[in-house]
Amino acid sequence: MRRLTQLAALALLALLSTFSVSALAKSKMEQLQSNQYAWSGAIRWGDFEGALSLIDPAYREAHPVSDLELKRYEQVQITAYRERNSSADKKGGVAMRDIEIGVVNRHTQAERTVRYREEWRWNDADKNWWLVTGLPDLWGGE
């Protein structure tokens, strides 16, 4: 009888650990979706300074955005932001999204479409997903 109780306790412990791992994975993916939603909203509404807060702090430090660059982003209006493809590796902590952005130059009213790939990485220390590709290049070398 004692052995049966021990086996039942072990089975219950294994079941609970499975649920907690599953719950953690789910909350991790929910946070990814939340961060991606906030990012796409910031880009759609032209809030590039707000979007910077979702970029990995180490990336921001290595690739600072100047005031002149931010002024350049003010010269465009985003007309579309469409996800074309996405993938996520929960265990590896990496997610990718291929994005198509519609851009209108406010001065010339010229419209163009820009493709952009987002790369998101999970940071265990922060318990947060960070974008590690920076702001989209809306000029493509122009």
TrEMBL record:
<feature type="signal peptide">
    <location>
        <begin position="1"/>
        <end position="25"/>
    </location>
</feature>
<protein>
    <recommendedName>
        <fullName>DUF4440 domain-containing protein</fullName>
    </recommendedName>
</protein>
<keyword id="KW-0732">Signal</keyword>
